[in-house]
Amino acid sequence: MSLAEWPFDDFPDESLFTESWAPAVDLKENKKAYIVKADIPGVDPKDIDVTLENGVLTVRGQRKEEHREEGEDFHRVERFSGSFARQFSLPDAADDGVEAHMKDGVLEIRIPKSEKAVARKIEINS
């Protein structure tokens, strides 16, 4: 499937919801579900909020700034801290029963497809 065919759309004004940084996200699907994976290392799952409302999946949270000791000088800071939010419009085929798991800094959200969206073989009676 090419990206042009992907059923998710970024929320049209996503930049309005991204305050400091945005985690990298992979979007994929299989026969039974849509799957969203977000790289959010260093963020406690308690600091992440995943919501589904009116067909829009929202992932928001916050990475706390590293505590700086007196006398420490940073020569380069590339790891972002602060709030983030990503929003995606879900396809009509998405169903309730969304599950979210976090392992090794990767948040995985599984959105089951509705029974209508799952391909099935139709018997032809003679």
Automatic annotation (TrEMBL):
Domain SHSP: 16-126
SUPFAM superfamilies: HSP20-like chaperones
Highest taxon in the source lineage: Bacteria
Protein name (database record): Hsp20/alpha crystallin family protein
Pfam families associated with the record: HSP20 (PF00011)
Lineage: Bacteria, Pseudomonadati, Pseudomonadota, Gammaproteobacteria, Chromatiales
InterPro entries the UniProt entry points to: A-crystallin/Hsp20_dom, HSP20-like_chaperone, Small_HSP
Family named by the database record: Belongs to the small heat shock protein (HSP20) family.
